[in-house]
Amino acid sequence: MTFPDSNVTNFISKRARARAIDPAFNSVGFGKAHDKGVAPINLGYGMPDQSFFPIKSLQVNLQDSSFEVPRETANRQEIDLKTGLQYASPYGHPSLLKYTREIIERIHSPANDRWDTVITAGGANGIDKCFDLLLDEGDTVLIEEYTFVPILGSVKNIGATVVPLKFDFQSQSGLDIEYLAYVLENWESLYPGKRFPKVLYTIPNGQNPTGFVTDLKSKQKIYDICVQNDIFIIEDDPYGYLELATDKPFDDVEEYLKSLPTSYLSVDKHSRVLRIESFSKVFAPGSRLGFIVAHKDFIEPITNYSVLATGFPSGPSQILINNTITALGGLDGWFKWAIKVRNEYWSRKQAAMKQLLQSSCAKKDQLIVFEPKAGMFISVSLNFPPGSNCLELMSKLSEKTAQHGVTVVPYQTLSPIPDFTKDNCHYVRLTIASAIDHGQLKEAFRRFTSAVEDLFQDLESS
Amino acid sequence: MTFPDSNVTNFISKRARARAIDPAFNSVGFGKAHDKGVAPINLGYGMPDQSFFPIKSLQVNLQDSSFEVPRETANRQEIDLKTGLQYASPYGHPSLLKYTREIIERIHSPANDRWDTVITAGGANGIDKCFDLLLDEGDTVLIEEYTFVPILGSVKNIGATVVPLKFDFQSQSGLDIEYLAYVLENWESLYPGKRFPKVLYTIPNGQNPTGFVTDLKSKQKIYDICVQNDIFIIEDDPYGYLELATDKPFDDVEEYLKSLPTSYLSVDKHSRVLRIESFSKVFAPGSRLGFIVAHKDFIEPITNYSVLATGFPSGPSQILINNTITALGGLDGWFKWAIKVRNEYWSRKQAAMKQLLQSSCAKKDQLIVFEPKAGMFISVSLNFPPGSNCLELMSKLSEKTAQHGVTVVPYQTLSPIPDFTKDNCHYVRLTIASAIDHGQLKEAFRRFTSAVEDLFQDLESS
Description:
homodimer, 462 residues, alpha/beta, Aspartate Aminotransferase, domain 2, Aspartate Aminotransferase, domain 1, 2 domains, 7-stranded mixed beta sheet, 17 helices, 2-aminoadipate transaminase activity (chains A, B), pyridoxal phosphate (chains A, B), Class-I_PLP-dep_aminotransf (chains A, B), transferase (chains A, B)
């Protein structure tokens, strides 16, 4: 431990630190003592009375039940329209915050008690906020060699840069820990003049694109290395709920929760972890809602950024998600819904794996399938002949998949530093999320394997 | 005209210009030619099928009617759940974009045809995006001496600074145009070493806090000065729909639209205007939705910022607003609703004005009321005895209002440069938006005038 656990504020970026909200405005006549016991009437803050809202009530029809969102309710675990359509806290609505804290407590039992949560306007917004919190111009972020590349926008925007780490593709276990240690030990010679990394950005569970899950033992090792080097871990985990490693459908909530991939929070004795969750996969991407788990002293600086950039997260989105959780009977009902989603992903994964493994290109060893342990992506490694030009063959594969009527993602488009991966780019990402049913899913994977066979036939005959 | 109208891209900030989205990722296997006429199945983009969304349908009960949001619809002016809960365009949903373009066309008839609109995550988000688009570190923004100070967060975040302009408090007509010209003509001597302004940020209609409306003739003058000086105008107009100058309730849509305060767009021959609208006042603040009107070449750079910061605006918010407009019968029905909101604000304004003007402190000339021409704020100028310490007396007034049970906003808390306004800070902002009914509104204004009388009594007896 190179700095006291309790003091993380030294690591806040200069930009975020300079961003204290003007206390004069924040007061705006509020918070002043009111004598005489007269309840004050507000002529201060320009908050329209609820009679100005056109919507009287909402009825939400879920797949198996329905609920009403009334103008007003006394139930503190519901957000009524009076509250949900009004100006609101940049931290998020209290009831939803309560749920997010309980989710983290129950699934991940964080290794310290200095954490809190804050609602975000979705996963991408959570990532941008974490980078903003920690990174200054010239800072360096360690990043997986293949990853969710849109995050580069946030890093570049700050004027920071990324340095890629390697996966252990052999064991399919996630980050190559030896390579991580090697990079840090040899930083000066590998990256002369570049600032030593301040942050590791990782998608540890059902990684995009690999589908790898870093197990707890490996997380502990990576964590220890990061702590020794004063590196914060930004854990982006939108896919964890889509656990795929257990070989059956779930029914029991406790059993499901125990099966879920772990979080770095579980080993975070020293408050070096920021966890980003999203409601996109279990609820719906259009909701643009998620949350960050971080040291409690990070929450206000994160929120000060919200205030200037977005105000606060969408009320209708918070209403729909919070009240759906409540209508389902609280978190147990919510997890039951998550199980339903997970079971469908698992069953799609089974069907797609079968289709892939029974294909003649698998039998001819033209491809190796990475069976995902979580998430929505199956990856395939193509066994191109030794000495072939990887980029060129991947480009040919793209033509073939187009001809066969299937869209896929070549790994190289997910490479933050294309030059780093160009000789190891013989991978394709295939999502099981998007097909409208199992029939279409199987047909899509059939088309993909036909495209691969077609390509290898061309290679053999040329 | 000092630069060609058609080329505004030179004025995009360095940060925004560097932010092109990685074309490799954007392609992700899409957009490739598909031979054989086979409709491609998506194994590329990780977009969950709609069967993963827990909500089957929504019923929205408006004040006088109701409508359903189904899973799927063929009506292109409705956003169904399949679309609205899915990943979506950072530009906003096409149907809502269409409405925003029609709103602008119909009300403001822009003076050029190079404009377009883009949906934002609310007014604050729109402001942040416009500043991000135009400002680099060290740039200068002209700003009203009293304004919506949270915007300073965005300016500071970029490393830009603000310089205050003056109001013409005598004529209550908005910005003091002579002072604007004076500042620009004497820039070097008034602000030695400071970069010449690139942007004027103004709330021209129902200004916060003054309630002033800058009329079209004045807008033309201000616009001409800005064009001569290569200054862009960011017009923040959340309050325009709450027109208060016409002395009656409206019923007819055309009459209402003609009465609305004008936009700088109407004189914008040279594409120097960015207009920010919000759905907060006419729909609901919790929706966090609005739009920007700007030169079409500005739209993509604005959107590139969305992609990294928020992804795209909340689907549920877009569903509720877009489908409410459609359910009300399109824009005519929407404007009818706006009239209803406006009429209630107008009637509150009438009631509050009466309460103020009949008070004995008004009769004793202890205060002068600024009757607002639009918006949700009435301002009051206090006639403190000559030579009194303005800040000290305003602080005493705060104590008095607290004692009398009413919260108000002293102008000084809305001053971007408190030192600039400290000797001219004898104003209070009072909102008519927040009271639950006319009874409470009158009681609040009664308490306020009692507090003022109380203060002046103290002054006289001391």
